[in-house]
Here is the input.
Amino acid sequence: MKISGQAAVVSGGGSGMGAATARFLAANGAKVAVLDLNPAGAEAVAREIRGVAAVCDVADAASAEAAMAVATAAHGPARIAVNCAGVATAGRITGRDGPLPLDAFRRVIEVNLIGTFNILRLAADAMSRLEPLDDDERGVIINTASIAAFEGQVGQAAYASSKGGVAALILPAARELARYGIRVMAIAPGLVATPMLLGLSQEIQDSLATQVPFPHRLGVPDEYARLVGHIVDNVLLNGTVIRLDGAMRMQAK
Ligand SMILES: NC(=O)c1ccc[n+]([C@@H]2O[C@H](COP(=O)([O-])OP(=O)(O)OC[C@H]3O[C@@H](n4cnc5c(N)ncnc54)[C@H](O)[C@@H]3O)[C@@H](O)[C@H]2O)c1
Here is the structure.
């Protein structure tokens, strides 16, 4: 699908890879709605790209429905939906303070997995009602897993479970939505220099960067955005998870 002229929604568009994706899509002619829990981030990015901001918690049905309605009112139903909203709260299953609080585990699953599904279900329903384009395509939904889905580290029980869920969602969703000409994909980034990662100490960042075989550095958000652009463009990409990691394989710790 050509990006130019399409309506797009980007969850987590107020920061990091979501913001880079919103900028990339807008620069290539899309009308972009920036959905984020953080109003300041969403509004700043939307202003910069002349898009629309919609504040929402992706984990909440009514909040996401309201945000998607704002996006549709501004630009029409989206043919491109990108799920970038996420949290990376770490925590050991058991530690000095006892077992991981169940609500801590639950919140990560709610944002990363249920939040992804929430936007996916709303975007897919709206796309299914649109007229088909070339190749009978109606839309594309691109989600964000993580290499932690496959190599979760100590302290990532919740995060890795949530991202494993996203990875496992892709094929059944692509199979089900194929009859509408809607593609479903995921990107599994390795280490990307975003506020999520830049919050770690410089020492940890440097140590992480040395573990990336090539290129021997952290990824940058634009590399993620450019892969989103290729996935939108290439109709044969469907039902799979693409690693974007410079051959990084995370160790246990
Ligand atoms: N940075 C990395 O190295 C890395 C690696 C693998 C996967 N990821 C994944 O990539 C995605 C983007 O992460 P990023 O690194 O750009 O992080 P980021 O923190 O820069 O951006 C995440 C955005 O999601 C928003 N958000 C959080 N909870 C939300 C909610 N409930 N509802 C709506 N918005 C919410 C935040 O406000 C923020 O703007 C996440 O899903 C993350 O898990 C990141």
Q: What stands out?
A: The chain has a mean pLDDT of 97. The longest helix spans residues 102-128.
